[in-house]
Give the backbone structure.
Amino acid sequence: MKAAVIVFPGLNRDRDMIAALTKIGGTKPAVVWHQDADIPDADLIVIPGGFSYGDYLRCGAIAARSPIMDKVRERAARGVKVLGVCNGFQILIEAGLLPGALMRNTSLKFVCREVKLEVVNAETDFTRGYAKGQIIRSPVAHHDGNYFADAETLKRIVGEGRVAFRYAEGTNPNGSLNDIAGVFNEGKNVLGLMPHPENLIEAAHGGDDGRALFASALKQVA
Amino acid sequence: MTLRNDPAITPELVASHGLKPDEYQKILDLIGREPTYTELGIFSAMWNEHCSYKSSKKWLRTLPTKGPRVIQGPGENAGVVDIGDGQAIVFKMESHNHPSYIEPYQGAATGVGGILRDVFTMGARPVAAMNALRFGDPSHEKTRHLVNGVVAGVGGYGNSFGVPTVGGEVEFDARYNGNNLVNAFAAGLADTDKIFYSKAEGVGLPVVYLGAKTGRDGVGGATMASAEFGDDIEEKRPTVQVGDPFTEKRLLEACLELMGTGAVIAIQDMGAAGLTCSAVEMGAKGDLGIELDLDKVPVRETHMTAYEMMLSESQERMLMVLHPDKEAVARKVFEKWELDFATVGHTTDDLRFRVLWQGDEVANLPIKELGDEAPEYDRPWTEPKAPAALAKSDVPQMDVAEALMALVGGHHCSSRRWVYEQYDTLIQGNTMQRPGGDAGVIRVEGHDTKGLAFTSDVNPRYCEANPYEGGKQAVAEAWRNLTATGAEPLAATDNLNFGNPERPEIMGQFVKAVEGIGDACRALDFPIVSGNVSLYNETNGRGILPTPTIGGVGLLPEWTQSVGIGFVAENQPILLIGGPAERGTHLGQSIYLRDLFGRRDGDAPHVDLAAERRTGDFVRKLIRSGVVTACHDLSDGGLGVALAEMAMAGNIGATVTDVDGNDPVLTFFGEDQGRYLMTVNLDPQGDEIAALWEEAKALGIFAPWIGTTGGTTLTLGAATPLSVAALKVAHESWFPSYMNG
């Protein structure tokens, strides 16, 4: 399994993501600078978290319009797995690869804490390491993670099993509609989520609930 | 030479630059003519208190700054301390008090930006941040607004830049009503053989400007920070800089990449007094002159004058001296990160600081006298009056359980979750202990077992009552907090916040506090390797509480051995290590007196430095032996509050005995120093604990078994048991309800 991590200026959890992929996958992912002409051959493309271009416009809006995203779109269309975490999720939404919108947290404040997630769909390449309905721990750290979709879109993504994770046990940190924490595209080969599973993958983090997501995506879970 | 002088230099203009008549005379004597307007600005920037330390230097020199692990002490952008294996920790704390009061969000944000830049200027990647924040009385009309803005600003910058905030302090006191304090700490990791310094070397080498463009923001900021506030402070808002963490993040990556190419000879960030201060420091330190051509400086606005360019405090800028043959390599790195890169001058051999603008020479000054030979004062000071100790019989009574509930749910001891959840505490994936404990702990990237602990401490109440003991206590508490995690305290940074040094009683506070800091640092082998002084923290003639904040750094050979403050299991014996047999005796200047009885009297508790060291070394040894399951130092609120914090953090209750013959108020709320609480995984009747007590006894350390963990309530002697859940509700409620109110 080959992984590639796309880096835009202003992203800052790229190092966390690269460390997690290296520790779980056994090899360091390719690191792709946003100005690179193409993405090397990879089975998993990851856009990590941070503040691309400072998020001075709508979060992720500028990165979503950079040329490298055309390459991401092409790969996704060919079935390559694409994972966006936090700012990466915002970028995938802005790029039209995932439905809905991410608005400012209802508290209007940045929030960094641990939440509980319910695994809603465990039958995808990203989530098969978990059981359906399983409750896992995960940190969040964001200012704009309040998921919204219009009624019709919401009905469709729920009906099509495209909700990956929901905030559980009253831990919704941002006001997301239906407690949605992560969603898939139609083909379920593109996943975006606000929480940071890469920051909970080893004993040193106080738990490894995030590990199965990467193990699944890197095909270490059958 | 052609020297433009517009506007004319008048006594009013000199005064508005914060220069006293005798200082202006010194300028005239030094250059033998009237300075140009630009030169006057340069002098005001270099000779103000903020940049020159003219009132404090004499006393700062008395601090211990050396040690076997110290690679670089004060005088550079940050201190550098060896942590073994070819790695070093680079750190400093710096204030941004005045700007944060005028414009809380940007003031705090640029404070964080400035300290991060100090660290990565030296070649270190920032790995931890802390913030010590002090605000006015919660009921003061401006306090809530300031808390909101400062916390959002700290988070807004640090979160975007990508450094975990692992600790800090938040405190309220009416004495900060007109001057809040924002003391920002940052630490970075570097290889010991790849540390970069500001001293320029070599004549005729290019001086290169990097980073963001220069605008008019922050012109005169350092001068503003060197004066008291009056009622006209709103007019000073334009002197506050505007932060751009996105540019800072790119600057970090670009600088580290550039340093890897071997192109950098010297580097200095543009902080206070911007281009002026950075150029003069690089030249003066290297015994070189500098010539700058301002027409080459990247500017954000048109028609900027030489004066404005020299005094701008636009953020996210750096000045470097580069190897001439590597200029192209350097340019490429900066183009990749889309940052400005311009050769704006060169080094010379004539020790002059020359500034050219539109073909004219607008400044030509002796560089050494501007920089490292700036004026220095021995300001008059008066010995602070020792406060009367509380009478032994003076123990105001209150039900112990009620008092504990009130303290835990009060503004001083309540949870700071509302604050630290707005900071990214986990980014980089190395945070082992988040805020809320004694010290933040991270593991060291690139090493299998090493960890680092960080803490920030000072007790301004103690410093006000007794500056010498308060200074000692601040150092001792930082040392104690590091020890309580199992770390070996390595070194510290000091951020000395005081009032107007021209008042002898304020200068007296400063002198005695520095003396106390020095004595404690020497006794504990805890050198000061960097720091910052912030004076003139006064509004309308009323000074803040003297606040010498100490930022401490400790090393854990194996982070897996570190412990937190929360009880981890039921039925574990609780030991109180250190302090007197009565457990608690000292109520003067305590939180119990201040917050429950409105009293600020008595002497500050004294720190016995020899006992402090003995006790701490014993505690650290126990932690590293693996018998300790939780450890917490005793500070504000004494034994009672410390027990409550351990119970709340672990969701486990405890039962603790009274002391025969001692007033329970003293036992549970006395603030005697040098004490720790710990739980151990030992049988209280067994041989191992007996051996522990034998050892303590031999060392002269009092280490009684005072109670046992377990259940859902905390019972302090004969007092009504308190449910841990109810304590938690009170502890967690104060901050959010205050901010929502």
Notes: The interface with chain A takes residues 152, 155-156, 159-162, 244-247, 249-250, 336-338, 420-430, 432, 443, 559 of chain B (CB under 8 Å). The domain at 563-741 of chain B is CATH 3.90.650.10 (Phosphoribosyl-aminoimidazole Synthetase; Chain A, domain 2). The longest helix of chain B spans residues 504-523.
